Amino acid sequence: NWLKENAEAFNIETMEKLNNSKWVLVLKNSIKVEIEGYIKMLEKVLFINSDIFFFISSLILFTVF
């Protein structure tokens, strides 16, 4: 009975039902969490690189002038 009910969960007739199905909602949330993690890593990289750029440009300015 359990197997039959869960197999029916994958028997979806429309895209709307597919988008609202439990496993697609879990998948969407998982993808969202992964993307948010990548965005945070990218923000850290950009912040570190901006600090490095500021440091190098300051060194150049102080050595030239």
Automatic annotation (TrEMBL):
Residues passing through the membrane, by range: 45-64
A Gene Ontology molecular function term of the record: helicase activity
UniProt keywords, alphabetically: ATP-binding, Helicase, Hydrolase, Membrane, Nucleotide-binding, Transmembrane, Transmembrane helix
Full protein name: ATP-dependent helicase/nuclease subunit A
